[in-house]
Design brief:
CATH topology of chain B: Sufe protein. Chain: A
Low-confidence stretches of chain A: none
Number of domains of chain A: 2
Helix content of chain B: 40-55%
CATH superfamily of the largest domain in chain A: Type I PLP-dependent aspartate aminotransferase-like (Major domain)
CATH architecture of chain B: Alpha-Beta Complex
Shape of chain B: globular
Number of domains of chain B: 1
CATH architecture of the largest domain in chain A: 3-Layer(aba) Sandwich
Oligomer: heterodimer
Radius of gyration of chain B: 14 Å
Radius of gyration of chain A: 22 Å
Number of strands of chain B: 2
Order of helices and strands of chain B: HHEEHHHHH
Number of strands of chain A: 15
Shape of chain A: globular
Structural class of chain A: alpha/beta
Structural class of chain B: mainly alpha
CATH class of the largest domain in chain A: Alpha Beta
Distance between the termini of chain A: 39 Å
Distance between the termini of chain B: 33 Å
Largest interface: A-B, 16 and 15 residues
Largest sheet of chain B: 2 strands, antiparallel
Mean pLDDT of chain A: 95
Strand content of chain B: 5-15%
Strand order of the largest sheet of chain A: 2-8-7-6-5-3-4
CATH class of chain B: Alpha Beta
């Protein structure tokens, strides 16, 4: 593979040296962390641990500088127009909760509609549902075509109902299918809707360009892009973030407080209540800095190579039902062994040190549409190798053999 | 199919598992052998008919759905169980769990240490999974069948 040395890439992850027996294909759940990230977190705790934005000492200034530098790194990584458009959260779930809560009463009023899709993660369904039920707001759902891609004609029709908000995932966390985000945002905007993109799986596939995508909000978790757990990003256009009522209050988000009234700090601090996950955010900054050493097209090509080999291998196995499509796929393959429960298949892969996830992947509406109890999910990352692909295929073959004996 | 029939069919199957299969499980040479036995155990148990699978029988916390039916014979103070699961390995593991407690009195059930017993059978790792296979949830549901003393 020209331009990308997977062994060099992989060697930066201590996990693979410490656990050489494991084939890790649970990357859509969480990714391993390179040394650059664990070093940055450790350095912060050991050398200048202190709180940000409030210490009367140089250590705090240093911590603040590093924390704010991470904001610059994220802003540049996703090509945001302004650094204050990056809000740090505990993850994509927290970011989606902030958006759903924050738009109530400012944008969304009783009788309004919002539009979601059939394949959303629960984090992009339930926060909306919680508030919509209470405020009398209707939820419409974009259906799927038989190829399990979104039905854009139906989407166009649903936009005629004038939803105030359209929220969809950039990449399906179950199937790996990449949605035509650019086109969907343009269509939603033409219909006058605010657009929210759940980029939890999308951000690690393709460095998203906020100014090109032109969405109002884009959210992702740090731990799914080589960063620490407990970190996430809520990106919003300045004018869109201004519309959000803070979900959490307290700490640096406040300007003036009396028992009569409180005025809030400016962005981004207005939406970052309490002490943030300082070490985590610094680790996330380090992760994105580190990742940018690599040409993302090389990473995409490498993953495409793995995916192709995996699909070719699966085609040779009898009794395997593949839910994902090989095209427009970010590197996730959902599959089942005919008439077997996915948890049995996953248990047998686990015995062979193949880490996958099984079940409904926090996307129950998708599985009720598919009328399946779940699926086994193999999610590839750039540090996976062809050897990983082959070991997974062999393990699957063994699982099929035992299950169908 | 009635509850009486299910109990009558389940009881000898659980006895058979306890008397014959437990030793094989413990001595299984490798995971393949162990899993082959586990899958056979599930097959020995009668399936709970679909219309008897009421929501309150569901064992919560399972990635695969599992159902537990409980019958307390008050005259003899003995507890009997019937189980079903969508997943075969889970069903096998749950069958082992049930064969250990089926027919116990309230006092025996209350003090039964499942975790210790699973350790003896080299099955402890399956219990410690925080969520997923549902064995811990099943154990809790079995314990909850004890009448409050």
């Amino acid at each position: 593979m020209s331009g990308f040395d997977v062994q060099q890439f992989r060697s930066q992850f201590a996990f693979f040296q410490l656990q050489p027996d494991w084939v890790y294909l649970d990357n859509a759940a969480t990714m391993h962390k390179p040394k650059a990230v664990t070093d940055a977190v450790q350095r912060f705790y050991q050398q200048h641990n202190s709180n940000v934005h409030r210490g009367a000492h140089q250590l705090s200034q240093r911590a603040t500088a590093e924390f704010e530098q991470a904001r610059d790194t994220v802003a540049s990584f996703i090509n945001a127009k302004h650094r204050h458009e990056i809000i740090f959260t505990s993850g994509a779930t927290a970011a989606l909760n902030q958006i759903a809560f924050g738009l109530m009463h400012t944008i969304l009023h009783p009788g309004d509609r919002i539009l979601l899709t059939q394949l959303e993660h629960h984090a992009n369904i339930v926060p909306w549902q919680l508030h919509c039920q209470r405020h009398g707001i209707y939820i419409d759902v974009v259906p799927l075509k038989s190829s399990l891609q979104l039905d854009l004609a139906a989407y166009q029709q649903l936009l005629l109902k004038k939803p105030k908000v359209v929220s969809f995932s950039h990449v399906s966390n179950v199937l790996g299918h990449i949605q035509p985000a650019q086109q969907m945002v343009a269509m939603a905007k033409a219909a006058g809707a605010i657009t929210v993109i759940d980029g939890a799986q999308g951000v690690v596939y393709q460095q998203p360009d906020m100014q090109q995508l032109d969405c109002d909000f884009y959210v992702f978790s740090g731990h799914k892009i080589y960063g620490p757990t407990g970190t996430g990003v809520l990106y919003g256009k300045t004018e869109s973030l201004e519309q959000l009522t803070p979900l959490l209050a307290g700490g640096e988000m406040i300007e003036q407080v009396s028992f009569v009234n409180t005025t809030f700090n400016k962005l981004p601090f207005r939406l970052e209540a309490g002490t943030p996950n300082i070490a985590g955010v610094i680790g996330l900054g380090a992760a994105l800095q580190w990742l940018q050493q690599y040409n993302n097209n090389n990473l995409i090509q490498h993953k495409a190579l793995l995916l192709k080999a995996f699909f070719n291998g699966l085609a040779q196995l009898k009794g395997v039902d593949i839910l994902s499509m090989p095209v427009h796929n970010a590197g996730i393959v959902a599959l089942n062994v005919d008439s077997e429960h996915p948890s049995d298949v996953a248990a047998m892969l686990d015995q062979q040190r193949i880490a996958v996830r099984s079940g409904q992947h926090c996307a129950m509406p998708l599985f009720s549409y598919l009328a399946k109890p779940g699926a086994v999910r193999c999610a590839f990352a750039a540090y996976n190798t062809l050897d990983d692909v082959n070991r997974c295929l062999l393990a699957l073959e063994q699982a099929v053999e035992i299950l169908t004996a | 199919m009635t509850l009486e029939q299910l109990l009558a069919d389940t009881k000898p199957a659980l006895q058979d598992i306890q008397q014959r299969d437990l030793a094989d499980i413990k001595q299984a040479a490798d995971w393949q052998a162990k899993y082959r036995i586990l899958m056979q155990l599930g097959k020995k148990l009668p399936a709970i008919p679909e219309k008897m699978k009421q929501p309150e029988l569901l064992v919560k916390g399972c990635e695969s759905r599992a159902w537990l039916l409980h019958y307390h014979d008050k005259s003899s103070d003995k507890h009997y169980f019937v189980l079903d699961s969508e997943a075969r390995i889970v069903k096998g593991l749950m069958a082992i769990m049930l064969c250990l407690v089926n027919g116990m009195s309230s006092a025996e059930l209350a003090k039964f240490d499942l975790s210790h017993k699973f350790e003896q059978l080299n099955l402890k790792p399956y219990l410690s999974q925080s969520r997923g296979n549902g064995l811990t949830a099943m154990a809790e549901k079995i314990k909850a069948c004890c009448p409050a003393s």
